[in-house]
Amino acid sequence: MKPSRIMIACLLVCFAIILSFGCSDATGNTTPPLQVGIVYVSTPGAMG
Amino acid sequence: MHEMGTQGLESHFGERIHVTRMENIPENGTSALAFDFLVDEGCSIIFGTSYNYQEFMQDVAQEHPEVHFEHCSGYLREENMSSYYGRMYQARYLTGIIAGSMTESDKIGYVAPFATPDIVRGINAFTLGVRSANPDATVTVQWSGTWFNATIEGQKAQALISLGCDVLAQHQDTSAVASATISAGKYAIGYNADFRAMLEDDKVLVSSLWCWERYMIPAVQAVLDGTWESQDYWGGFEDDMIRLSTVSPLVPLAVKQLVEEKQSAMENQTFDVFWGELKDTDGTIIQSAEGKMSDTALRTMNWFVQGVIDED
Questions:
Q1: Contact B76/A at CB under 8 A
Q2: pTM
């Protein structure tokens, strides 16, 4: 059976969805969290 | 406190950031190891929150131009290292008005760790506020030699109370000074956190507070956006970098109104603390009558205004 244009279109859409899921999480955020560092002279629970 | 700013950062960005905290890091070469560690952990932006970290942070920043460094309270900068701070001296001045209005002995105490320009500036601003309300009052300073040691801070508070001080302020990282002060039936001025709410005592007259997230959130956002640039930031009341807690009901309404007026004037920049003629404790004129002090002079302040008694 020769693939119809509709079948090819469906395959392309599926491929795009797979790609999309592969690059993003549930929130649509595709990048890992930005790593932030902070250095305290005392403890974070202290006032400083 | 700075940690509240960090928590504000986490709350704002959620899962878009991950924060690694390093605590109890002394202001020596150990801090360079801490900064290096955070670089190795993959941090894109690193905050250093104590004055004497700055030279160590600068060394690490020069070695890692791909990482953004943020130093609090200093003045050194690099293309990848900003300095940021707030005009806490403005809040100190207002708390000084309250202290000067409430003292009966005309003796006010102040416990501070080290004589850095930031701390000297805070003591001077506080004293100017005190003397604006009560020209006869003095501010006696006891040096603790530590940022964070409740035992020593409490001992210094007791020493000031023994000298007759009936209102005590502080530049420390615990609430020990305020606790000792209210236990002795005296008035306390809080710093870094709302001590009146924390200690549940109206003898804590007011606290001056930081809003670090006002700086930290835009800084992290700029890294995420790829628009971060090195800057020298010094925010005040006008951009909510600092603020006062609510004032104790023990403080008369007229004093509260005066504080509000002065705060508005600072927000509108029609008044600032170091304004007009200023003399040091020897009577030497440091600033003439015209205008306000430059930021450069504020940042290098190493002299005390009249009214300060240095117990060192």
A1: no
A2: 0.84
